[in-house]
User: Which sequence fits this backbone?
């Protein structure tokens, strides 16, 4: 949706500082970096925070050095590797047994090399592993469950991710409502979770691989103990959204929203209703609403007919 979102932001908003406080994978922030002098990115998942450090943060790194390391990783034979935390837990489930051994070995090796790498190099090679692993996963796009059949054995190939040139960036890993109280920007972009599906539980495996803290895992989906549970996935979502909007110090507020509140699945139903968002934003300024038909990603059997993506752009009264 970024090809639709950014032209609207560029047309309707002014200023040089862009903040994305539920940044996710950072796609919108990356696009905004081409139009704004300074960007602020934030997400409470460590895997996303690490991704911002790899792609956005300025720092010294050697492309030839990392390419050489990755070339060695791509020559690894799983037959010569011992079992490790990753293969023992995720092999034969989220990944093939051979691939899981390679991923676990590489992740441990990256940690051993940490003192020989700059901070920028560490995050680049770590995220390169994350991207490679995600492409090999035996899932439908998230880690709430794995496909119940033996994963297909494929050759593991790791590629070096390419950082993005950003003039100025600030990176945070905070609760958005807390960050809002100290944040100052021209444009604040908001794309929070809206239904009861906890974001952190969908991507638990990537969190485990990034933090490499080897937690005890539970249940069929092999999840660690709950952490980073969002109030935006609970009945308090409207109250939290109102608190966030009223705390912001900015010229423009941009909110992404979709209409899955009509879903037949309780877990997919929006916790914040369309009119509530409109009312809360109108209390801060003049709000324009844009909408676009969009095919919703759906891994289950829920039918999202007439799915619409909304973009609210509020020019604040300040």
Assistant:
């Amino acid at each position: 949706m970024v090809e639709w979102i950014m032209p609207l932001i560029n047309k309707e908003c002014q200023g040089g500082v862009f903040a994305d406080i539920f940044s996710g994978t950072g796609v919108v922030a990356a696009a905004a970096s081409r139009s704004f002098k300074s960007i602020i990115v934030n997400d409470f998942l460590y895997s996303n925070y690490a991704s911002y450090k790899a792609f956005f943060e300025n720092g010294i790194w050697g492309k030839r050095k990392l390419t050489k390391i990755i070339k060695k990783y791509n020559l690894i034979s799983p037959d010569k590797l011992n079992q490790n935390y990753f293969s023992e837990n995720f092999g034969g489930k989220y990944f093939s047994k051979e691939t899981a051994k390679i991923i676990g070995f590489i992740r441990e090796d990256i940690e051993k090399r940490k003192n020989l790498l700059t901070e920028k190099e560490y995050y680049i090679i770590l995220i390169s592993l994350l991207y490679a692993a995600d492409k090999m996963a035996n899932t439908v796009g998230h880690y709430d469950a794995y496909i119940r059949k033996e994963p297909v054995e494929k050759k593991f190939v790791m590629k070096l991710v390419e950082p993005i040139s950003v003039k100025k960036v600030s990176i945070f890993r905070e609760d958005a409502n807390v960050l809002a109280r100290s944040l100052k920007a021209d444009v604040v972009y908001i794309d929070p979770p809206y239904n009861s599906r906890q974001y952190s539980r969908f991507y638990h495996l990537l969190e485990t691989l990034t933090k490499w803290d080897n937690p005890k895992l539970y249940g069929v989906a092999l999840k660690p103990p709950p952490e980073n549970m969002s109030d935006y996935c609970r009945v308090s979502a409207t109250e939290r959204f109102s608190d966030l909007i009223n705390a912001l110090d900015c010229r423009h507020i941009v909110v992404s929203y979709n209409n899955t509140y009509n879903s037949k699945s309780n877990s997919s139903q929006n916790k914040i209703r369309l009119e509530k968002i409109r009312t809360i934003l109108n209390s801060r300024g003049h709000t324009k609403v844009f909408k676009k038909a969009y095919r919703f990603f759906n891994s289950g059997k829920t039918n999202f007919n007439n799915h619409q993506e909304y973009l609210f752009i509020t020019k604040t009264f300040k």
In short: The longest strand covers residues 250-258. Residues 119-136 form the longest helix (18 residues). The radius of gyration is 21 Å.
